[in-house]
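Ops channel
N.P.: pipeline sanity check, posting one input/output pair.
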């Protein structure tokens, strides 16, 4: 093969490759053109939907406002037949003023008899008690509006839509029903003004799927049930507005639908263009492209054809460029945002028609104007600064500025500005200006609401801290001295009295802890631990705690574990036990015969815990009160059984904080109850055994302890506990005395109250830690009524080693002393 042949063959191969490449590119462009046509059609249907929806909303707003006025007149004249009969003139005037929105107004008495109408009628002759809207208002109290299905009027057999409202006395009894009617042809005529093609459609329907108005009009379809159509069955349940390509259940045509459910009325509007109409031009263009591509492939070996096709492709490119430019121009001319082309010196070269709605001036008035130097009623230094940065080389910037329209309206404007190169290579600024007045107002309102919420939450936290402190302080004396009395020799009656005091104090403390728990959950500060938990041991331990309570009432308390349960799971031990104890104690509390069973089962990837009892059960209509804060099923429950009604509410929050957490109840009155909860608690391996810690308590070495406490009753309780454990005690009545004592004497430990006169525990701790004496590093334990986690954190930040809350728990106090005194 000679060189010319090789060159010819190579040229032919090159031509074929180029032609294949061109054919592929052409196919992609054709498909992109289809997508572009569909996107344009989507914008058209959305704009049409906005117009149709506004017309429907305005029409029913007018009718609703008139009905409210008529209803007020009827209510005023409820007991005056003469006044009611004189309503005809009012109805005639209202209809005359509201046309063409409104066809007629009528008033129907409680028996279904027409008593007033905007059209002439024979009194006592026309009844409407067979109408669905009358029956609805007769059977349902309240003054909500009802939009009924389309009906044929009895007078002239015209399809109408009714808007009705109940008029009732203060006691809720029915006075009358006022109705307004709107002709479906009113909407039909409006829909016929739009150019939607031969197969386009506009629809107005009730939210339940009842067809009210449709273009094209098929009278047999009025009132048809569309609830099983794809629009009502598939798309509306997912979103109240949107766009979807669907096949009509009415005529089988595939259409691009834009739909919306109105906000103030249970109505759905939809506008649609037929897919065939949308793509008609595209199909024609696609066929042209297919023919050209076929010709290109058939004549790949002919250089002349290649040149012709190359020239043809250039022409098509120019045409597409012109079409693209036209489309961009169309977008700019119809955009609600103002589009500007501005020279770097501020001279406006182009302004889109949105200048009229935004600034109240024609676009032509802005062209040639220097936007930076133009005199304005608002000072806009940010605009000059933005142009300076763009001229210095910054590619884009966004500013928010103010503008005053000629009518005095103040606008907040957001301008997105970007550098662009023109055809001659010069630089200019393309700016998109948007009205963000409402957005800025919403943002400011949200910020104000957030600040108010933060302030309210802070006030709530301060209130809870104060309540907790003020209750825990006297509770320390009550429970402390009750414990001292129970440890001393007393008669049986005295022991019983002291026990009742201790039980009452513990009940009050439990209520306080419930309130603080709930506050922590609502503040979002609840964090669940994830540690290995032995499931059988946890369940058995919960039952063991309550077994004596069951034995006292003569009830059985059983544990039923499924055979396929894991031994170890990952969970928050404390919170899981808290939920179980709450459900179990509630079951025992409301059960007088039989007993309670705790069952644990697998439920897919979750574990299901069930607490079943043989108690009084819960009626279906009362179960909605469960799991609500401060809610009890019976008024007598709080007195008979105790409690605040917080336990189930807290349990619900705790369960829902767990993975896939869910809680509920199955019960009926007199049939017992089963409270259950489920959560995805993963299985884990058993942890490695650890050496048991040395027992803590009063058996260790005696310690010399400084107690900083200003209340005598608290001093007496602490002194009794410490002396009984073999320790020696010195008291300081405030923080100043505590600091002085620490500088004069050596102690093994300091117990520090937080709230004291002259100098509080926080200040005293800081002073001791900052001193240079031997007590600088002495262990300091807060013993305080401030039980919130934020207060415990303050103690640690000040230099304290531990935090114990009042009322003082003897075991916990002695264990802490043993732990810290030995460590020191």
């Amino acid at each position: 093969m000679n060189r010319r042949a090789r060159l010819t063959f190579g040229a032919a191969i090159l031509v074929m490759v180029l032609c294949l490449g061109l054919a592929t590119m052409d196919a992609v462009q054709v498909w992109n053109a289809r997508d572009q046509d569909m996107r344009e059609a989507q914008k058209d249907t959305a704009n049409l939907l906005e117009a149709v929806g506004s017309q429907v909303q305005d029409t029913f707003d007018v009718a609703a406002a008139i009905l409210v006025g008529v209803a007020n007149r009827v209510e005023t004249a409820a007991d005056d037949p003469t006044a009611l009969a004189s309503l005809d003139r009012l109805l005639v005037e209202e209809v005359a003023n509201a046309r063409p929105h409104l066809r007629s107004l009528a008033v129907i008495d409680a028996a279904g008899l027409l008593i007033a109408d905007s059209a002439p009628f024979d009194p006592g002759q026309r009844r409407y008690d067979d109408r669905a809207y009358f029956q609805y208002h007769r059977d349902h109290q309240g003054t909500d509006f009802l939009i009924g299905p389309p009906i044929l009027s009895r007078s002239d057999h015209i399809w109408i839509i009714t808007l009705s409202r109940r008029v009732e006395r203060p006691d809720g009894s029915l006075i009358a029903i006022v109705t307004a009617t709107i002709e479906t042809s009113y909407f039909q005529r409006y829909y016929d003004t739009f150019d939607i093609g031969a197969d386009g459609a506009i629809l107005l329907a009730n939210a339940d799927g009842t067809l009210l108005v449709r273009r094209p009009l098929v009278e047999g379809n009025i009132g048809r049930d569309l609830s099983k159509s794809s629009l009502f069955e598939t798309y509306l349940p997912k979103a109240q507005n949107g766009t979807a390509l669907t096949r009509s259940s009415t005529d089988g045509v595939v259409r691009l639908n834009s739909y919306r459910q109105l906000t103030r009325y249970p109505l759905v509007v939809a506008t649609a263009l037929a897919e065939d109409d949308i793509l008609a031009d595209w199909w024609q263009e696609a066929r042209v492209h297919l023919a050209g591509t076929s010709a290109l492939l058939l004549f790949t070996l002919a250089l002349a054809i290649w040149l012709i096709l190359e020239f043809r492709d250039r022409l098509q490119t120019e045409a597409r460029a012109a079409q693209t430019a036209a489309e961009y121009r169309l977008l700019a001319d119809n955009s609600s945002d103002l589009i500007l082309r501005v020279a770097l010196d501020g001279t406006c070269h182009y302004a889109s028609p949105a200048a009229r709605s935004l600034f109240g001036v024609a676009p032509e008035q802005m062209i040639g104007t220097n936007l930076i130097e133009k005199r304005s009623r608002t000072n806009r230094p940010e605009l000059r600064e933005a142009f300076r940065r763009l001229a210095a080389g910054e590619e884009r910037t966004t500013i928010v500025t103010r503008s005053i329209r000629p009518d005095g309206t103040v606008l907040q404007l957001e301008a997105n500005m970007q550098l662009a190169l023109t055809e001659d290579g010069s630089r200019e600024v393309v700016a998109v200006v948007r009205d963000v007045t409402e957005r800025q107002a919403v943002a400011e309102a949200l910020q104000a609401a957030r600040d108010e919420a933060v302030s309210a939450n802070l006030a709530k936290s301060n209130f809870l801290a104060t309540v907790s402190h003020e209750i825990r302080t006297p509770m320390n004396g009550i429970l402390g001295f009750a414990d001292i009395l129970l440890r001393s020799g007393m008669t049986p009656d005295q022991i019983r009295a002291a026990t009742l005091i201790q039980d009452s104090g513990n009940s009050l403390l439990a209520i306080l802890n419930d309130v603080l728990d709930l506050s922590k959950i609502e503040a979002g500060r609840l964090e669940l631990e994830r540690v290995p938990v032995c499931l059988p041991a946890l369940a058995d331990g919960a039952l063991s705690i309550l077994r004596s309570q069951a034995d006292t009432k003569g009830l059985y308390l059983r544990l039923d574990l499924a055979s396929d349960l894991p031994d170890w799971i990952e969970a928050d031990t404390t919170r899981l036990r808290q939920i179980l104890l709450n459900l179990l104690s509630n079951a025992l509390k409301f059960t007088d015969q039989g007993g309670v069973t705790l069952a644990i089962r697998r439920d897919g990837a979750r574990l299901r815990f069930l607490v079943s009892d043989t108690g009084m059960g819960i009626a279906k209509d009362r179960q909605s009160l469960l799991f609500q804060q401060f809610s009890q099923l019976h008024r007598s429950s709080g007195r008979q059984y105790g409690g605040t009604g917080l336990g189930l509410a807290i349990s619900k929050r705790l369960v829902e904080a767990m993975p896939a957490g869910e809680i509920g109840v199955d019960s009926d009155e007199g049939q017992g109850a089963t409270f259950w909860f489920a959560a995805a608690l993963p299985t884990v391996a058993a942890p490695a055994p650890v050496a048991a810690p040395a027992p803590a308590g009063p058996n260790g070495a005696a310690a010399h302890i400084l107690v900083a406490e200003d209340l005598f009753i608290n001093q007496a309780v602490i002194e009794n506990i410490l002396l009984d454990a073999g320790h020696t005690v010195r008291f300081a009545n405030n923080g100043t005395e505590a600091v002085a004592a620490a500088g004069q004497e050596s102690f093994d430990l300091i117990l520090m109250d937080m709230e004291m006169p002259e100098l509080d525990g926080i200040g005293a701790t800081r002073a001791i830690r900052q001193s240079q004496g031997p007590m600088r590093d002495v262990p300091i334990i807060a013993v305080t009524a401030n039980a919130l986690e934020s207060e415990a954190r303050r103690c640690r930040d000040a230099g304290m080693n531990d935090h114990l809350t009042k009322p003082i728990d003897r075991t916990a106090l002695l264990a802490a002393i043993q732990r810290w005194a030995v460590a020191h």
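N.P.: looks fine end to end. Residues 633-644, 690-699 have pLDDT under 50 and may be disordered.
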